[in-house]
Amino acid sequence: MTVLTMAVNAGFLLVFLAVALGFIRLVRGPTMPDRVVALDMMTVAIVSFCGLMAVRSEVQAFLDVALALALVGFLATVALARFAERRRSRGQEGDG
Amino acid sequence: MNSVILRAGTRYLAGLLLVFSIYMLLRGHNEPGGGFIGGLIGATGFVLFAIACGTEDARRSLRVEPQAIAAVGLGIALLAGLAAALFGDDLFTGQWLFINATETEKGLPLSTVLVFDIGVYMVVLGSILTLVFAMEEEI
Amino acid sequence: MEALLAIAIGVLVTCSVYLMLARNVLRFIFGLVLISNAANLTIFTAGRLTLGSPPLIPEGAEAPAAEVANALPQALVLTAIVIGFGLFAFALVLVFRAYTSLGTLHTDDMRVAEPRETDKA
Amino acid sequence: MMDLLAAGLLLVGGALILVAGIGILRMPDVFIRMHASTKVGTLGSGLIMAGAAVHFGAPTVIFKAVLIVLFLLLTAPIGAHMISRAALRIGVEPWGVDTADKDPASQITDQDKTGV
Amino acid sequence: MGADTGSTAGNGWVGILPTIASAAIFAWFLGFIPAVADGQTPGWILDWVPSLGISVAFLVDGLALTFALLISGIGTLVFLYANSYLAGHPQFARFALFLFSFMLAMLGLVLADDLIALFVFWELTTITSYLLIGFGHETEKGRRSALQALFVTGFGALAMLAGFILLGNAAGTFRISEIIPQAGAIVAHPHYLAILILVLLGALTKSAQFPFHFWLPNAMAAPTPVSAFLHSATMVKAGVYLMARLHPALSGTEVWIWTLTVLGAITAVLASLLAMRQTDLKQALAYTTLMALGTLTMFLGQDSAYAMTAFATFLVVHSLYKAALFLVVGCIDHETGTREVEILGGLARLMPVTALAAALAAASMAGLPPFIGYIGKELIYAGSIAAVPSSVLVTGAALAANALMVGVAGVVAIGPFWRRAGGTMPKTPHEAPWPMLAGPVILAVAGTAFGIFPALLQGTLIDPTAGVLIGDFDKVKELKLWAGVNLPLYLSLATFALGFLLYGFAGRVRAGLAAADRATPTADPIWDDFLKGLKGLAAWQTRAIQTGVLRQYMFVTFATVFVTLAVTMVVRDAGLALPAFDTAEPLGIALVALIMLGAGLAAITADRITAMAALGVSGIGVAMVFIVFSAPDVAITQLMVETLVVVLVAVALLRLPRLESARQDFRPWDALLAVGVGAVVTVILLAVVAVPLDRRLSDYFEATAWPEAFGRNIVNVILVDFRALDTFGEIAVVVIAALAAYALLRTTRADDTEDSK
Amino acid sequence: MSWYLATPLALPFLTAVLAFLWRKRAAGRWISLLGNAFLLGAAGLLMVEVLREGVIAGQMGGWRAPFGITLVADYLGAVMVVITAITAFATALYAMGDIDEAKERLGYHALFNLLIAGVTGAFLTGDLFNLYVWFEVMLISSFGLLVLGGSRAQIDGGVKYVTLNLVSTILFLAGIGLLYGMTGTLNMADLALRVPQVENQGMVTVIAMLFMIAFGVKAAVFPLFFWLPAAYHTPAFSVSAVFAGLLTKVGVYALIRMFTLVFTGDTGFTHEILLWVAGFTMVTGVLGAAAQNEIRKILSFHIVSQIGYMILGLALYTPLGIVGAVFYLVHHIIVKANLFLIGGVVHRATGSTDLARIGGLYKAAPLLGVLFLIPAFSLAGFPPLSGFWAKYVIVAAALEDQGWVIAGVALAVGLLTIYSMTKIWAEAFWKKHPAGYEPELNRVSAAPRRWMLAPIAGLATLTMIIGLFPEPFVVFAETSAQQLLEPAGYITAVLGDAP
Amino acid sequence: MNTLAVNLLLAVLWSAFFGNFGLLVLGSGFVLAYLVMWLLQPLTGGPSPYFARVFYWIKLAILFLYELVVSSLQVLWDIVTPGYNARPAIIEVPLDVKSDAGILLVTNLISLTPGTLSLDVSEDRKTLSIHAMFADDPAAVCQTIKSGMEKWVIDAVEGRRA
Ligand code: NA
Ligand code: NA
């Protein structure tokens, strides 16, 4: 096992740990923005994941996935954040 | 959405997303991408636009109804398939034209397959925008 | 690996069926998203899994050099994802419209087309 | 040599992402969590992309890696802005900040924030 | 109904045309008499559905010809009569059309030599009679009667159809003339009993035999011409015709004999009693029709030449007098506005021609010499005495029925004309217009003429008809006014004695019978109970199944999935495979965990945002599976779609209410079912992946993608070239989803207040 | 040759696109009408070709089977396309008088033609995944058409219709994945060859049952039919007519196709189950109808009931049984679509289809009465109308197969069908218009009347023709049954001589 | 930013995507970018004649990267060490930068440099509120941003003002 392979495997492990921690935050909340942050972080994690995958399999194509996600992923965050905010401004109190 | 930051960002991101979407569309035959993915990304651009600046602006900059884009896209995809009839082939048989073909290089390919993919792109773009705009206007 | 995914799919199906059986149609929608994923994964898994070798033909080659992943299920899944999105989008809008016009998300109370005996004039 | 550099970049990048994850989990409020995720995460991602670029060495890969990082730099802060703005507006009180006198929506119930 | 419209003016061409047409048909059939009397059976065959062995085959033998002549002859008179009876009626054209169609269907029925063709005509008579009986459709009663007739005869017909199919299969042909020679084989066939019961169900319901007799009197709701036609000569006799037609093929067995004899006897006696009980003339006649049908059925149970001759004779006799009497009653009704025995009286002076016709027909019905009815009755007794093995039963029934018939004849023909009126009649009667008199007079006179000159009938109709049943013209018994002093003569005398007694005490008998009738359950209320039960069952089933509650629909659907697949797995011994984890990729394990965690969280959370985020996590996990296992295109698509799903849901949720808490919503049975479905899916998938996959499709794609389709991304080449049609359909789905959703959001809620359009 | 197959599929799409682009003008509806006229022509040409050749197949994209997608038409496929075109044309005519401008502007004609495209595709495709795609095209168009108008009943019915059908869709998709995983192919002819080679035949049966359930939902069989009576009475009349005629039949078609071509290895089990399903479907459907008092609800339950007959034909799996199923399929589409169209005219004339609120049509609209009686009595199985032959063949097949009980059930259900049809007749036509409800016998005005009655009369004529001259149709159905039971010809046409 | 410049930039970007700067690709990119920008006209306020300030851009980039790394470590330290070192505060920073691009750049850079996070810009574009993690002295943080990040951005994007 080369150094690179080990680094890649370690990278996967680290990224996964990050995702797992994010998941815990997602479950625990407590506020809506907390959950959104957790989801947002996962986007970044997948981008990294794609990079690692590209190195591991020697296939550039995985970077295309990262490229697309890097550009588009935040839209979900924007939509959710807007939801959190608008829901309140529309006066739907106590209604998530 | 009255966020100055989002609107400022959208100004650049929307353009970027559109250009990127067309790039994804055109390279799709050889690398990851294609009409679906391109259309999805392109739609994201306008969706962002609609979220940031409202659907009214987004519709105005789109100029045509998104439904029409989708319908025309479907028509284009169909015509790409029907074109095979002119060459005596079966429906959806790809017709290829290689510009600047040389002995070693195939040249720049133009094909009904690409036209088909452009139709797919328009359909996905138009349809998603139809949906999102209509929903946005409900709230 | 396929076996593992088979179990994951089973869990996905379990969760989605449970959601789809709920009284609240919004939960049905959530279940729909999940079960679509399950169906797509089913096709993908049934086409067998290949690690890190996308079905691409390198520049200059006539065919993939090494063994690449099964392309057909990928194309099918891609199609199914997009179709699933279309269906989902409509279902969501329907649920939305159902709430604005029937005033409820609870299917037990959706009795306009098939009124209760007591509802009848 | 290049492999070692790439390996290092990947490792550090991965570690940063984990730090971002830890930050998200253990930092006291949503704003500070965002500090962790938005930038440490982005930086980590950037390093991983750099690692990939170094590993492949091909111009297209380098270009793609740069683009990915650029895209993240462009979008991540906007996302963070949207979240924090929402958090502020629904009355999430920043940890360690005395906001009693300038909170625009101090009368908001807990449920609003949790979004149940 | 036509009470205030009757005149000789009629209905123009619409009124006259069917009369002329019927007369022409009658004349045409008359032309067959010499040939048929000579033993010939002219016929036509038209291949209809040769691939199913069905032809429109017609055959004119004695039985068919007798019926055809009765149908077209009486039909002519009825049309003549109806044109006046319903003169100027706004729906006369429809009426005439239905009635004429009915007549044609009846003719087809009796001439058909193919079981299926016969059935077709049979059902045509059902439909047309439904429309005719329902002529008074604006009353609840009219509609009820029409439905009852349709339903009861329809029930029989369907049974009969099954019987015909079995009979056809047993004989290898639907042609009746080819079936009859195989009588021996058919009677011995294992399906014989089924065939017999099914066919008899058709015949007995149509001819309103006990216990299906209840629909016939109700069917009197129809206008008089219809009653006269349907219930004297035609439709109800279709059942009798069928039994006669199949007599050569099916008779002679114990089942046949006892079923027909007993049911016929019961019907005959019961109907006679019920006839005596009526105060409405038309109802009384309706029941006497039943009596006749019972008698005819009873004779068809037999095999003797006497019985067959009696059958043929009584068939003709009854048609003549019954049609005449129905028409007479119609005249009375038309002129006086009532049919009540208690009210009517003294009409002989005001309506002398009607009175004469009534007298002649009633005399025939009572079996007085020298009318044809007398000959008929003598033959009935002769046949009864010859009956084996039930001579006493048949004779007793015949005696009782005939005596009652005498009484009824008196009620119908003497009371209204010669007695003093019992009340004020709604209208001032005078003689009916001539077209309405023509029918009864001609029929009554014919009855008299045939009585005096029975030979007119013997050679032309009776011999060929009875000959068909016996199988030999020469064995047919002779029709004689005076057959010497014998047992039938004594029985006749006894009949008269009893009959006159009954008429003498008609009022008291009626009262007694009415009391008895009220005390005995009849089938008519059972009909209502049946309908009520049907509706109740239907409502119960609908309540139980189509509950209107989506949750139950969904539960049943998934339960069906689970039970079916699980049971199939066990019953069909599906080879199961144990999961093989040896090749599990660590990355994959982590992803699988992520997917399951996301899904599980989505399933149990009560927070919408958590649910959405959890779905997102699960979706991301799926996307990562696609990445790890070499599907970048799919992964991108999955991620884009996940993003759009979040966007759309986030918009929609803005106006939707929050979820109820999960604990509140916990549903153990649903959970159990969900686990079951999930487990089944896993088990199947494990079995599927346990054996290697045949990859030749993808091998082909890999080999041809670049050389032939000029693309390096094989997935994309599949999408836009190899399987472009899929992709085209798929984008169509996307367009339609968008258009449909748009339409749904923008559609105007015009009828929000109106629940169902 | 492949264009014989491709044209009926491509035409409705073209029509839909053009009709959509011109949806805001009258041109849209004329485009739809014209397009459907062309479709009728194309379907006719296809039929002629199929009659000449037996089975024809075309490889889309020029990729030979089983690699590309094959369109294929045997007798069954061709006749389904023709009958689809007939129904579509009739409904398009009817829509000229029935559909208001608001619906047109929202794309009614586009959705309608896309529905037809999906139906046609489903009948023509020889590829299982492609079948899924056409199912989806059909399904999503039907969603749109169902809720167009947006009344509360439509939304409510729509929720049930959509959710339950989505479940079926997912099952179908999963089934395809699993079957592919077992055989490595999607081409139905190829599947016919590969499925018997699978070692684990027990699991094949399990997957067959999965398909049976998926298609069973579409076909609305017991106990999966809930969505149909919940929704079919709610949309515009031309919509429910085309739904009633075509949609469930696609499910039946798919069942017939899969359970004669692919899943024939365990007929002792699968077809026995179909037999039970058929019986329960017939009975529950007809009893459901007996409980209803609204014309479209009655008719909807009868769809269920009559699907049972078709399933029965398939379940018997004898030549005569399949003949009956095919004949029934064709007959029922024409008749049931027509009855719903008539329901629309009744609604126009009286303002309701609730039997308690209407009446007097026999006097007011005698022509409509005749036009109603023809399909109604045909549905009830009275000779000499098409329904008689359909029922006759099915019952004969059941009796031939010694299925005494099921034959009895089929006959009894026929009787109860008579009950329902006469209920409509007695209440809507014979009964006087009830007091208390506005006597809305406002005769339908001339122009819509023509558009609405013409297709009704046309379909009624067709019913009569099939009834009076059944021989060619029976012969056709026999050939069709032969092709289905001995699929060698089908397989050769698709895969060539050396598969 | 000049429309033409954006146009050219997009065209180059386009060519870069393909890794091919041939005339055909570049030309098609130009046309495409033109179309896209035409499409997005409602977004762009109007033409702003401007010549690239390459120098300030490079300076901005370098300073930003330095900030990013240095203060990342600061945040990282707080995360990985037990307890919380942070002294957070919400600070209102008056904004001088005017253009969309400038505001976006300032806010994004502030967010990306650890320790500060842009929360929102007021409707009138005059104030930026930020969340600072280590704000013992809010005024100092504000001053750092004014003289640091914002100044560099104004230099690069809007041109140095007196
Ligand atoms: Na359907
Ligand atoms: Na039906």
Describe the structure.
The complex is a heteroheptamer. Chain A has helices at 3-28, 32-57, 61-72, 74-89. Chain A is mainly α. In chain A, helix 1 runs antiparallel to helix 2 (32-57) and helix 2 runs antiparallel to helix 4. Chain A is elongated, with a radius of gyration of 17 Å. Chain B is mainly α and 139 residues long. In chain B, a hairpin with an 8-residue loop joins strand 1 (96-99) and strand 2. The longest helix of chain B has 25 residues, at 112-136. Chain B contains 5 helices and 2 strands, in the order ααααββα. In chain C, helix 1 packs antiparallel against helix 2 and helix 2 (25-46) runs antiparallel to helix 3. The longest helix of chain C is centred in the last third of the chain and has 32 residues, at 71-102. Chain C has helices at 2-20, 25-46, 71-102. Chain C contains 3 helices and no strands. The radius of gyration of chain D is 18 Å and the shape is elongated. Residues 100-112 of chain D have low confidence and may be disordered. At the E-F interface, strand 1, helix 5, helix 6, helix 25 and helix 26 of E face helix 5, helix 6, helix 7, helix 9 and helix 10 of F. Bound molecules: sodium ion (NA) (2 copies).
Cα gyration radius of chain F (Å): 21 Å
Q: What is the string of SSEs of chain F from the N terminus onward?
A: HHEEHHHHHHHHHHHHHHHHHHH
Number of domains of chain F: 2
Strand content of chain A: under 5%
Give the distance, in angstroms, between the N- and C-terminal Cα atoms of chain A: 50 Å
The portion of residues assigned to helices of chain A is: over 70%
How does the overall form of chain A come out from the CA principal axes?
A: elongated
Q: Would you spell out the secondary-structure blueprint of this structure?
A:
The complex is a heteroheptamer.
Chain C lengths: L1 H19 L4 H22 L24 H32 L19
Helix pairs in contact in C: 1-2, 2-3
Chain D lengths: L1 H25 L3 H27 L2 H31 L20 H5 L2
Helix pairs in contact in D: 1-2, 2-3
Chain G lengths: L2 H16 L4 H17 L14 H27 L8 E6 L5 H13 L3 E6 L5 E6 L5 H21 L4
Antiparallel strand pairs in G: 1-3, 2-3
Helix pairs in contact in G: 1-2, 3-5, 4-5
Bound molecules: sodium ion (2 copies).
